[in-house]
Design a protein that fits this description.
The structure holds two protein chains of two kinds. Chain A is mainly β. Helices cover 0% and strands 50% of the residues of chain A.
Chain lengths: 123, 110
């Protein structure tokens, strides 16, 4: 059973960088079996893909965030991370880490989710 | 605003059947991309209900079923139960916008 746990600051100042980490247990990130992704949900709104990456190095980011987002994988610590630069209040949301099968190609589904972590962007 | 449109809410009495539509376009469903469905209870992690248009993961009751035709998809819940009260989201891939979720539907059990 794969388990995911997000961690990181709950408060980030505007214009600064949001950094979150997802610790993975139950599977090795280097196995290549999954993609590693992030999804967010602003309060009162729907789910929004942030992006996903593969152990091979390929990635797919939300075009509206692509200039500001990086998802990276740390195989030595079995975790992956989200970095979002130049944040504004619009980036306030619950952020979920998520994984799905790496074979899915374009229309990938999310097989497992973390519990989510609230990040507030405010001075 | 998502490219996958769902009704904001649907409701039904216990035991009834409800359906949730997910309307897409030629750049997602019409291009052959699959639809997936999730159940989301506030404060918890979303749960995969249907993947690949009509497949249920292990442990998901067969009361939940999915279908896709042309540029639309739907999720049906039969034998509605109080525990089904939640938000439901469709999800797919769009040639222009990449991974996308639907706008979400709140299911209420009367």
């Amino acid at each position: 059973q794969v388990q995911l746990q997000e961690s990181g600051p709950g408060l980030v100042k505007p214009s600064q960088t949001l950094s979150l980490t997802c610790s993975v247990s139950g599977v090795s990130i280097s196995s290549g079996s999954y993609y590693w992704g992030w999804i967010r949900q602003p309060a009162g709104k729907g789910l929004e893909w942030v992006g996903r990456v593969y152990t091979s190095g390929s990635y797919s980011y939300n075009p509206s965030l692509e200039s500001r987002v990086t998802i990276s994988v740390d195989t030595s610590e079995n975790r992956f991370s989200l970095t979002l630069t130049s944040v504004t209040a619009a980036d306030t949301a619950v952020y979920y880490c998520a994984i799905g099968p790496s074979y899915c190609g374009g229309d990938c589904y999310v097989e497992s989710w973390g519990q989510g972590t609230l990040v507030i962007v405010s001075s | 605003q998502s490219v996958l449109t769902q009704p904001p809410s649907v409701s039904g009495a216990p035991g009834q059947r409800v359906t949730i539509s997910c309307t897409g376009s030629n750049s997602n469903f019409g291009a052959g991309y699959d639809v997936h469905w999730y159940q989301h209870l506030p404060g918890t992690a979303p749960k995969l209900l249907i993947y690949g248009n009509r497949n249920r993961p292990s442990g998901v009751p067969d009361r939940f079923s999915g279908s896709k035709s042309g540029t639309s998809a739907s999720l049906a819940i039969t034998g509605l139960q109080a525990e089904d009260e939640a938000d439901y989201y469709c999800q797919s891939y769009d040639s222009n916008l990449r991974d996308v979720f639907g706008t979400g539907t709140k299911v209420s059990v009367l």
